[in-house]
Structures
1.
Amino acid sequence: VKIGYWKVLIELGRYDEVEPKLKKVVQSGNREFSARGQLLRGDINMKQRRWEPAALDFLRVVHFYKRQRSVHAEALYKAGKSLEELRHDGASRLLEELKNTYPDSEYAGKI
């Protein structure tokens, strides 16, 4: 899977090239890649300032991929930040969970 390459395409704003590939990865059945694909879908929505779809993408990772610890902290952070943009009360709970569960993560350090 070309996660790094897709991140570059997202940074370049080439969403149309990435989205079909992410759909396949999310549906692949590989939990780790599915979680990463879901995060990247959220990143696309976040870059386009579509906060509600971004929050939903990140919340899917938070709730359905808890065992994928390599992406869980990132999902908590990005879900919390997306919800902050929406002025949703749940943002602080997610960011608090991030600080408590992953205190040494790079994402906890961004709060």
2.
Amino acid sequence: RAGWLDPALSPLLLWQIPTRLGFSPAALAPVARISQAKCPVLLGYGGVDPTVSPEGIRALFLAGPTPTTLWSLQKAGHEDLYRFDPAAYRAKIGEFLGETLGAPATEREP
């Protein structure tokens, strides 16, 4: 975020993306694209995220396919869910994978 310069800098930076990176900024529209997912989705959200607002994560969640799960760590930021609480992170990912993929082969009944 560029503060008061944001209105002037954002259009200039966005204009360069197709030439420098080879794709359109419109391709980075998660709310518009998430409904195209063909699998269950787990959204992890940090409650003090400076990048994604509570309204933004809610819009992403509501636009998601069925099932979409929203998991929030209220004191975590944008990229530190694991660093904030490694045990809770591992448990949530394990739970999500167990629910969506089933039990590991070693735990399945014959």
3.
Amino acid sequence: LQGVAKITGTLTIAVDGIDTISLPSLEEIGGLSVQYSTALTSFTLPALITMGGGLVVSGNTALTSFTVGGDLSVYGNAALCNSIAIALGNQLTAAGWSGTGSSGGNKSGC
């Protein structure tokens, strides 16, 4: 999967015996599930820009780090409180996300 740039469905990684997974070319994915890979210590998706579905990271007992690239941009959502977009960026950063967050034109004062 090293050269794959797009996966339209959900990629599920659930394998023992691999300690590191890197998908350096993956830019777009339908969803990602990394579960029950007990030897996995890290995974990286540095080029990821678009994820259409959810991200599930569960039951990886040796996992110490993961990096999901891409940026977060939340703009022009009149009913969405800008503070929600900022909080999401802060949560992602605290979890090890390496992207850049930006927002504006959303509802202010809430």
4.
Amino acid sequence: VGRSELDLSELNVASLELDGNVGQINLTLPRQGRSQITLEGGVGELVIAAPMGTAARIQVDGGLGGVVTEGRFTHVGRVYTTAAYDAAQERVEVRVKGGIGRLTLREGVLE
């Protein structure tokens, strides 16, 4: 598959596992609830958008070519979080397993 678009912003997703090798994944995280999302397999480019007010933590457990952050993300090692993550009751945890050529973390929704 060349490109996958997944907009979860208006959904309440408790758990999601994606497996596959694709060129590009554009993923917009859920705005509400507690979610655990796992992505496995190689991805050329992964773009993760956290809508305004979304508390998110992204952990990368594979090879990583480069990371671009746009907005309020901080990181320690290969774990990236939004500013509100630690205190939030509703939050999204993303775990990326597998190689990624480029990871872009963006505040807001993808257009």
